[in-house]
Amino acid sequence: MIDQKDILKTIDMIARQNLDIRTITMGISLFDCVSGNADVCAGRVYDKITRKAKDLVRTGEAIENEFGIPIVNKRISVTPVSLISQGCGDYVKFAHAMDRAAHEMGVDFIGGYSAFVQKAATAAEAQFIDSIPQALSETGIVCSSVNVATTRAGINMDAVKRMGEVIRESAELTAAQGGMGAAKLVVFANAVEDNPFMAGAFHGTGEGDCVINVGVSGPGVVKAALESKKGQPFDEVAETIKTTAFHITRMGQLVAREASRRLGVPFGIVDLSLAPTPAIGDSVAYILEEMGLETCGAHGTTAALALLNDAVKKGGIMATSHVGGLSGAFIPVSEDAGMIHAAETGALTLEKLEAMTCVCSVGLDMIALPGDTPAEVLSAIMADEAAIGMVNTKTTAVRLIPVPGKQVGDYVDFGGLLGRAPIMPYNHNSPKEFIARGGRIPAPLHAQRN
Amino acid sequence: MRAIVSVLGQDKPGIIAHISHALYEANANILDITQTVLRDEVFAMTMLVDLAAMKVSFEQLKEQLGAAGAKIGIEVRLMREEIFNSMHRV
User: Which protein family is it in (chain A) (predicted)?
Assistant: First the structure.
């Protein structure tokens, strides 16, 4: 029999350190739903999602029950809707079809109300992007993403400009829910095709008909492991994180394989992300503080996060046959008790977060800003993030929420996994003329790799 | 299918009797038992059980073990063996 110490260690990780599978996400291709008519196409979308995902939640719950490991979310991602709906118009109908199907399947979120405009947008894509605020305000669990930059294409600054406005409109149309629409909208650079995490999940064009991707989590487990390494050199810190990430990922691999087998759907990837939740003890910021920082945001935070992000990948990569998604450490402010505290006390600023996104797995995530933040400021923050992603050949993103009617010092509470955030201040010097230029920022020299 | 029954709680007489009786009633076969008293008289027991001839469903056995544990104030978990093997064995 396996060693009793290992059994008790696993139970402790689950019961007291919030170890969980964050999500089982089923990716579904919608290419076979294409039609020139919005009603026909949206009808096919609904039918395909409900046919493919009918057993997803039940299977997730059965695995949870038998293996004793919590699976926090069951989700669906679909082919970017802008690709299958071009020429149909009435894009919001697709969001409604997705929402209805997802509710019926009992999943937590559905992603893929998405567009790819890193070089330029077609007329249909521009209309699709215009529909995002309405789509997010009229649906409950549909998530949207727009890719505005890649290392190969550069940054589409026309799209960046428009997305600043779209974020504002999305927040304004959902003012009664604290601007929740903007919390379901991600703007990417170098978006990945197999990300199981929301709000940026979509089923990429290179994917098959249906796939199971799993996102692991477990910042609390890493923090607990580091508690026994106080004062020890970073070599020891990195080794401890790697070992812990290995254990966590092995569990993710088992769940992914089991879900794939039971559903009869191919296994795609395990995303090795440390995804925090607002629960105490489930925080990435606390890991950084455990490394010796008084508060997350102190000088040294970027270095600490760089070590964490790298060690998580190194530890996890041997534990699964296919790594993918975003893999690394997330730093969503409203979803992390330590980040919330650091932002409240002023230790963690937008500028420091931007620096952290150079070395974390994604970008500026779940950041609440004053409701009157101008669209061009949102666009400029987005441009900075896209530049970091483009130049460093990594995924970056922004999920900014200009919370209607709120000012610095106020709070917004989205509830659940999305958490609660203090409204953060931004730099008030205007980037208006910079954003008004439009056009493209060319791809960097190192994009020319062939 | 094999699973691990883990028991955690204050040490007291009858823990093994209660848990093994619940397993016997479900026709689950105990393959191995390890027990220790951890700090402050916290009792920890892990059992490897074979559920191939089990008369009830996995979920029912889980409930019955939980109920048997609750009677004597201890925490009982039933989890498939693979989770531990996959996490701790390469």
Answer: Belongs to the UPF0210 family.
